[in-house]
Design brief:
The chain is mainly beta and about 350 residues long. The protein is built from two helices and 15 strands. The protein has one domain: Beta Barrel (Outer membrane phospholipase (ompla), Chain C), CATH 2.40.230. The protein is globular, with a radius of gyration of 22 Å.
Length: about 350
């Protein structure tokens, strides 16, 4: 009887916590990722046309045309805790970011798996301040990452193939970084389905020097590699994002325009069959990611995970953003995405 009473009291306490606008494992409507965020926390499947380094077309290393690829991204900011004060002008949320990304190519032309990327971080607090609109700004907030780890790898099939090629200087570059990040948000949609324009900007750096054992952001692994070709660099990235949404129309549709400008820190090593790095003086490079499309809301689903589905056209230009390829300049990717938020 006492056990049953304790269970009932615990359940009442949990229910009371939710009615007071705070609780554990409780998602919130604000702080959602933008479509164009290259490290976004959503599900994305994409078919794109892109042009990889010729060394990765094992049938023709001189190939320079575009190939169809499939990209997949599975990510979530798992909620740990959230709280709103009584007036709801201050909200706090804590979550753990987890992400996996894969790049796949046609097996008859290149390697089935080109690259995989992984991200995971310590609990990250976010804060949103709401106030009376001032020159069109209705809220502002920030999010802090104390330690977010990234690890990327080329596929095993590619590694096995390249180990047999004596004329390739660098057979494998595994990117490994544990960095800090701070981002700021202005005009978060905050669950609204009205017209809204949001701006977000942030910085990624390694102030705590958590990856001293690595060479900058990356290390060299493989058979018979020339480590002298790997030039260290420091961890620093700046990005600026903007996302515009229309008011809802029809049974729950919205138009979305999302863009990101990210100043990437280029990896400093040659790639493919070359023993020299092209344009070694080029270091920090502006990269643009643009998505235009339409989104559908599931009714009564402001806070739920993956309750919104979108279809978008995507265009990317800049440094190749995937794994060991981040020393390649002038990479373009054009495709169609399906997104679940």
């Amino acid at each position: 009887m006492k056990i049953i009473l304790c269970i009932c009291l615990f359940a009442i306490g949990i229910a009371e916590a939710y009615t007071q606008d705070w609780g554990f494992v409780r998602s919130v409507a604000w702080g959602k990722t933008f479509w164009a965020d290259m490290n976004g926390e959503l599900l994305r499947g994409e078919f794109s046309w892109a042009k990889n380094d010729p060394a990765y077309y094992f049938k023709d290393i001189n190939r320079t045309d575009y190939t169809g690829y499939v990209f997949g991204n599975a990510a979530v900011n798992f909620p740990l805790f959230s709280w709103d004060n009584e007036e709801r002008d201050i909200s706090v949320s804590v979550g753990i970011p987890v992400a996996f990304e894969i790049w796949m190519g046609p097996s008859e032309d290149t390697f089935p798996v080109q690259n995989t990327d992984y991200h995971i971080g310590l609990p990250e607090p976010s804060v949103l301040f709401r106030f009376n609109p001032f020159i069109g700004i209705k809220n502002a907030g920030f999010r802090v990452s104390f330690a977010r780890h990234e690890s990327t790898h080329i596929s095993d099939e590619m590694q096995i193939y390249r180990d047999a090629q004596d004329d390739i200087a660098l057979k494998r570059m595994d990117v490994a970084s544990t960095h800090q990040e701070i981002r700021f948000i202005i005009n978060d949609p905050d669950g609204s389905r009205d017209w809204n324009n949001s701006v977000r900007f942030g910085f990624i750096f390694d102030l705590l020097r958590l990856e001293q054992k690595h060479t900058g952001w990356y290390l060299s692994e493989g058979i018979g590699q020339d480590a002298s070709l790997v030039e260290p660099n420091k961890t620093f990235i700046f990005y600026l994002q903007d996302q515009f949404q229309t008011a809802s129309f029809g049974p729950g549709f919205q138009g979305i325009a999302s863009i990101e400008l990210r100043i990437r820190d280029r990896h400093r090593y040659p790639i493919g069959y070359s023993t020299k790095m092209d344009s070694p003086e080029i270091h920090f490079v502006p990269c643009v990611n643009l998505l235009l499309g339409i989104r559908y809301y599931r009714p009564n689903s402001e806070n739920d995970f993956y309750s919104k589905i979108g279809l978008a056209f995507r265009y990317y230009y800049g440094i190749n953003p995937y794994g060991q390829y981040r020393s390649l300049l002038n990479y373009q990717q054009m495709g169609i995405c399906i997104l679940l938020e």
